[in-house]
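Hey L., structure's done. Input below.
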Amino acid sequence: MTTMRMSPFHGIAGAVRWGSRLFVACGLHGIKVFEIGGEHVRLIACLDDFPAFDIALRGNILAIAAGERGVVLVDARSLQPLKVWKTPFPVHALQWKENDLTGLSGCNPSTAVRFTAVPTRPIPALTG
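Output:
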């Protein structure tokens, strides 16, 4: 029987573009936000309060698979957190279809949790 265990990830797990911004999920190092302007690319923010193993975009809402922290929603414009959803397992992959966001386990792909309510206002701070 094979035993799976998590290992640190220090590369690019995923990326999405929203207007002139590029959001890059960097595993344990969170999200890096770049501004693209013509031939110049500039790092404008590092969101490293939580890991980012996958990232999905719908409108101006970023959904971030934050491992043991669950799923974090962030406003793409202000970079403010909107919601933190705790999950019964570490979330390492996301799938957004219409109004449903599904978080998937990296260790057991058949384990999933679905979210249907997407907030529209920022919350004061991330709470663990």
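The first strand starts at residue 14 and ends at 18. The chain has one domain: 14-115.

-- N.
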